[in-house]
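Recap slide: Diaminopimelate decarboxylase-like protein, sequence and predicted structure.
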Amino acid sequence: MNPRQSLFDHCRGVVPLRPRLEDWMVDLIADPPRLHALIEEFGAPLNIQSVEPFSRHIAALTGCVADFDLPFMPMFARKANKCLTYVQSARDQGIGIDTASHAEVEQCLAQGVPGHRIVCTAAVKDRALMALCVAGGVTIVLDNSDELALLEEVSQGGDRTISVGLRLNGFSCGGRAIYSRFGFTLSEVPGIVARLERSVALRLDGLHFHLNGYSAEERIAAISQTLPMVADIRGDCSRDFFLDIGGGIPMNYLADPRQWDVWLAELDKALAGERDPITQHNDNLGRKRGPDGAPGTVDSYPVAQSLVQTDWMRQILQAPDGDRTIARRLRDAHVTLRCEPGRSLLDGCGMTVARVAFRKTDSVGESVIGVQMNRTQSRSGFSESALDPLMVPGKGPRGDAVAGYLAGTYCTESEWLTRRKMAFPHGVGVGDLMVFPNTAGYLMHFLESRSHQFPLARNIFLRSDPDASARLDGIDQGGHDHPTG
């Protein structure tokens, strides 16, 4: 039997959404004594990670853009994962870091990341954050006039030039306006640029946008609408200038992306009463039909996208814009391309592991499997995480085959780790381990909460040598707010 196939023998979705696994994940899941030993040593829930895929994705992305002979600086989106190991890796590989808070900036500077390779795009920037960025030589991306006024105050009396960028909105694509609550409208930019040109302390070094979603076409349109502004701002100036196109590089997390369409079709059948439910209480997970009868989208972490990673970036750069490609226009304008990948660099870097604590039935006779973690510890801004977890058996009894729902630790009726129904063909028992795959990109940290005063999950990194010991990440070292084994 294929060893990867056997990993899914103990748990799968009633309608499967099988995750794509890195080799290091397979090796660990296929070695139950080692996985259980890590849980005993570091506690549970536990975020287990590897930095090797991160380094590989950086190399692939930089290599892709290098094919277009473009100056390029990817800025790792630190908000996607709080671990210092990724900061250190980004530092050592010479890329930049996108920060979104005082703590993120402070930690990056403390790890020796040069200020000129850090950009601060925090949604709210107070005086303390501004002052820290100024002192550390960090580029500040301004979102609104109030931020600009505050930075002008902070810069008074200083003796250093402050690097700033401007965040933009007001783009259109295919005749449709692209909505964003962030940034200056395109019509505001000339006035803001004139104000910066009068400043002694502030220097405009680039323009930035970050669009919601993953559309390559919208990025192409935004770049095309931004480049004329770059020419107007720079004139014949030869100094460095960047265009940062933000994040949103799409990913595929399924071993077979076709399973997503199968799962949607089965959900629609369940909602229509044509089959047994595959979600708790036959929940539609946001898939409501619109006025035209077309089904809506599921409010789920996006796990099955076809144009991903470097192929997505390549489509943008080779897209035509007038008589030239986007890449050629950027190159002719002597602009450094920047982007802010988070999930795409962290693909395959982590998984979250927790213990099964109990088994029971609810008031309508559905099986409930209680897991010792809460839903914020494997969740982003979406209401559902659409990858099947895996189960690694412990030493206790498991009983008969069962299908049911995974409940978390919060004392609410809504506390479900997933609303999709899971099947356990060989039963499930107390002490078994539930493994949630590919959680490093946002899922393990973006919403994690200490409600009920539960401790946060620790973060460990495995070394390339399977016989080497795991290493606790620096973000957890010296702290006391952690579980025991």
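DSSP finds 14 helices and 23 strands in the chain.
The CA atoms of residues 378 and 444 lie 5 Å apart.
(End of recap.)
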